[in-house]
Design a protein that fits this description.
By secondary structure, the protein is of the alpha/beta class. 44% of the residues lie in helices and 7% in strands. It is globular and about 75 Å long.
């Protein structure tokens, strides 16, 4: 039983971490801190962490207002007369199991709390039935959509179905791909679209259509399904909006970035999502990696130079296994040559930064490609 009068920050941190069933490694991933940093705090080697570190720990551990107050008091170096003891974890209520085919994730989900909350709210709004997450390649649209789908799964009686449209480029095949994913058998009596509509007509379901930019001309398919199936909602990801009736668009923003006008402080960097992601992915290849006074400025500049784009940051962080952040920053002038080597099991478009841009370029009509090439002479943009 945890001590009701924990006397040190070290004791309280360990109690809260144990209650949350987190290892030091898992807590480090959630906060963007190093494993050694967590260990030092729990061993009492660091007794007055920076405010940003305390905030990151409070958020990762899910502390109540009372627990947060006690934690902050101890973190300031004061000795409170009484500290709120970690409450026992409440039993998880057994709820109905919802069907889904959401792909399992092999890496941690970093940051995006505001975005997840905002998109969940939109998905659950009665007046929103088609929601499109838009943004450039590598912005994290798919990962955000999957996280949201997990969060709202219990709200849909017939669950969630994930349909990856990336393998197809012919809009005429969209209905067939949806039918195949849903397990709707082909019949000569009905078209694939009508067969899917008949299958979903009486269901309450969220349909997640990923990579819709591949077949954006098939957007009317989504509308026809929504008209035929009153219990259906569609969550789409696309590099462009679908431009159909009833569409609600949500532009996925970049990860939060260090302020370029403020001096870089090591302890404050962990509050920025872009830095958190860089650290977590760097640790995957080099477990001992941590933000230090030597590399903090370089990491902050890398995240800013890459505009908070998750894919680019992950590719850059993967290079930490071979070279320090200072070297990565120096080589960013040749970022297309540097930002390569993504995981081999990822789609080709996510293995290099150039492949991500090529994917978008190839989706343009010839006139659009010509216009883009002419605009390339304006490196600072044009109005």
């Amino acid at each position: 039983m945890p001590d009701a009068h924990a006397g040190t920050l070290a004791e309280l941190l360990k109690q809260y971490r144990t209650r949350a069933h987190l290892s030091q490694e898992e807590l480090a991933q959630r906060t963007g801190l190093s494993v050694r940093g967590i260990s030092d705090l729990e061993r009492g080697l660091k007794q007055r962490p920076h405010n940003a570190t305390v905030r990151a720990l409070v958020q990762a551990l899910g502390l109540s207002a009372q627990e947060q107050a006690a934690f902050e008091v101890l973190g300031s170096g004061a000795a409170p007369s009484e500290v709120v003891r970690p409450a026992a974890a409440p039993p998880v209520a057994a709820g109905p199991t919802r069907a889904h085919n959401l792909p399992a994730q092999l890496t941690s989900f970093v940051g995006r709390e505001r975005e997840v909350a905002a998109v969940v709210e939109l998905v659950l709004r009665l007046d929103v039935r088609l929601l499109t997450l838009t943004g450039p390649g590598g912005a994290g649209k798919t990962r955000l959509a999957l996280r949201v789908a997990e969060n709202v799964l219990a709200r849909f009686a017939d669950g969630v179905r994930f349909v990856d449209l990336a393998p197809i480029s012919d809009p005429g095949l969209a209905s067939l791909e949806i039918a195949r994913t849903l397990g709707v058998p082909e019949t000569g009596a009905l078209s694939p679209l009508n067969a899917v509509a008949a299958h979903l007509r009486d269901r309450q379901m969220l349909l997640l259509l990923d990579n819709f930019e591949q077949v954006v001309l098939a957007a009317p398919v989504a509308i026809q399904l929504l008209l035929a199936c009153p219990g259906l909602k569609v969550l789409a990801t696309s590099r462009v909006s679908l431009h159909v009736r009833g569409e609600q668009v949500y532009l996925v923003p970049p990860l939060t970035l260090p302020d370029p006008l403020q001096p870089v402080a090591v302890q404050q960097l962990s509050q920025y999502e872009s830095v958190q992601l860089f650290v977590v992915r760097a640790q995957a290849g080099k477990p001992g990696f941590a933000i230090t006074t030597d590399n903090a400025t370089a990491v902050a500049h890398i995240c800013r130079r890459l505009d908070g784009l998750p894919l680019a940051i992950e590719l850059a962080a993967a290079r930490v296994r071979f070279v320090p952040p200072q070297t990565i920053l120096a080589r960013l002038s040749s970022r297309f040559a540097l930002l390569t080597g993504g995981a081999q099991d990822l789609p080709t478009r996510h293995q290099t930064l150039r492949a991500t841009l090529d994917w978008s370029y190839d989706l343009l009509p010839p006139a659009g490609q010509t216009l883009l090439a002419r605009l390339a002479v304006f490196p600072g943009g044009c109005g």
